[in-house]
Write a structure and sequence with these properties.
Layout lengths: L4 H34 L19 E3 L3 H24 L7 H25 L19 H25 L3 H25 L27 H8 L8 E3 L2
Helix pairs in contact: 1-3, 1-5, 2-3, 2-4, 3-5, 4-5, 4-6
Length: 239
């Protein structure tokens, strides 16, 4: 039976969406597998093995445990946002956008759970978030908030990579940073097709177009923005 033009176009659009999603997952999959393998290694830094329970949600920047707890807090925030968004994505979202947002949600949950596992008894607790200022029914609001969180996350990772003292942690941060960067590029492309490559627009987050340097923000600057959405009290020391 000969297919109508509309049927042929629908199949073509479906195939194109499937291929774009597959390419997106291929880019993120390598890092996810590497992260999983890291979690099975036995040479975790000594500070993560101490018999210590972080009952007051302390993020102490004196060592890598504090640095990773800081990143863990951001991953909790991002995961919570995508979980909330995925409960009822805006009706104007395309089928491809829905697929990609659900993929990103799963990535962020995986990152959150990985840091929780590696930090062990040094990990901060589960954070309570407040997204009451976000209109999740509005596509523009959802995309702009996603852009804010992803850009902030990339800036945090890039700075954290320069601060960590242990090669094991450097590898972890470097691997996951590449996934976060792809998230940021995808979300930005949904708002403006070329904005992901505009370093001038990213200058407030530490990007320098003249030197071709990506975003990078110190923890204090990142937390200043992230804590607006976190209700749980964090004890932050040696910042």
């Amino acid at each position: 039976m000969t297919k109508s033009n509309s049927e042929a176009n629908a199949e073509k659009d479906s195939f194109s969406a499937s291929m774009r999603r597959r390419q997106f997952l291929q880019f993120t999959g390598a890092s996810a597998i590497a992260v999983g393998l890291i979690g099975c290694k036995k040479d975790k830094p000594a500070e993560f093995e101490a018999a210590y329970v972080n009952t007051d949600n302390t993020i102490d920047f004196k060592d890598d445990a504090g640095l990773l707890n800081y990143i863990y807090a951001l991953e909790q925030l991002e995961a919570a946002f995508y979980v909330k968004a995925a409960e009822s994505l805006p009706t104007s979202f395309t089928a491809t956008q829905i697929l990609f947002f659900n993929d990103i949600k799963l990535h962020e949950i995986a990152h959150r759970e990985f840091f929780k596992r590696i930090l062990g008894t040094t990990a901060i607790g589960n954070l309570t978030v407040d997204f009451s200022s976000i209109n999740f029914a509005d596509a523009t609001a959802v995309l702009n908030t996603a852009k804010t969180f992803e850009d902030l996350g990339v800036a945090a990772y890039n700075d954290a990579i320069s601060r960590c003292k242990n090669d094991y942690n450097l590898f972890i941060l470097s691997q996951i940073a590449t996934v976060e960067a792809r998230h940021a590029a995808y979300v930005r492309s949904q708002i403006d097709a070329l904005s992901f490559a505009d370093l001038n627009e990213l200058a407030p987050l530490g990007a320098d177009a003249g030197s071709a340097l990506d975003v990078s923000l110190a923890p204090g600057k990142v937390l200043e923005q992230a804590l607006k959405y976190i209700k749980t009290k964090l004890t932050i020391i040696n910042l």
